[in-house]
Amino acid sequence: MDEKRVAVVTGGATGIGAACVRELAAKGFRVGIHYRSSGDAAARLLTEIGEGFLLPADLAAIDQVDALMERLKGETDRLDALVNNAGVSIDADMQRMRIEQFETQRSVLRGAWYLTKRVLRLFMLRENRGRIINISSVVGHTGNAGQIPYAMEKAAMDALTKSLARELRGRGILVNSVAPGFIATEMTARLPGEVQAGILAGIPLGRMGRPEEVAEVVGFLATAGSYITGTVIHVNGGLYGG
């Protein structure tokens, strides 16, 4: 069905995900744009890149991941790259965090695990090739007050990367993480000015990153780096050395 390489980016309608969609489209991929609630933004992005398809789903709901896979099978018979970017950040300190909030955060990780499992079985293991790129975060390595479940989720994404790379040895499938630092997105724009100033003071490059700078690394891992797997690449302006 598809002669062009095909990629799927979860959480691909906005922010870092949208930058990854644009980067992969520029590199010649037909890109599936997953979204949960940003349908209008996803549709505009699809019009912008010119060729691709939309994949609406709440990844926290297993039945919706199954429905996404059925839709994906109808769109393509190959998948060359999966970018697990979708995420949510529920901020509260340990004593104020409710169990329901924790479970919401945890369900995002479960969704990424299950989607990856399905993609491997349906596409990549059949062909013995593919790239899985997990978007984690600097806070999975440094920790961050008020973000314990989020930091746990992102650290787990890197653990998934390292463990899955070992499971897939000899199968031609590369698994890597990209761990952004503080990137200029809608999420960071909501931080109070004094918080942003404190963050900038700790970044050797003296500025927040741009979504496109994360996407550049994703694009590299999707198309090159044939001897890189089980690795976490930090994109953080020197904030954390890894």
Please provide a written account of the structure:
- With 242 residues, the protein is of the alpha/beta class.
- The chain has 9 helices and 7 strands.
- The chain has helices at residues 15-26, 39-49, 62-75, 99-127, 139-142, 148-167, 186-189, 193-201, 211-223, and strands at 6-9, 30-35, 52-56, 81-84, 130-135, 173-180, 231-235.
- The chain has a 7-stranded parallel sheet with strand order 3-2-1-4-5-6-7, with helices on both faces.
- The model has no long low-confidence stretch (mean pLDDT 94).
Form type:
globular
Give the strand order, joined by hyphens, for the main sheet.
3-2-1-4-5-6-7
Largest sheet: 7 strands, parallel
| CATH H level, superfamily name | NAD(P)-binding Rossmann-like Domain
CATH fold label? Rossmann fold
Helices and strands, with pairings:
Blueprint: E1 6-9, H1 15-26, E2 30-35, H2 39-49, E3 52-56, H3 62-75, E4 81-84, H4 99-127, E5 130-135, H5 139-142, H6 148-167, E6 173-180, H7 186-189, H8 193-201, H9 211-223, E7 231-235
Parallel strand pairs: 1-2, 1-4, 2-3, 4-5, 5-6, 6-7
Short description:
The chain has one domain: 3-Layer(aba) Sandwich (Rossmann fold).
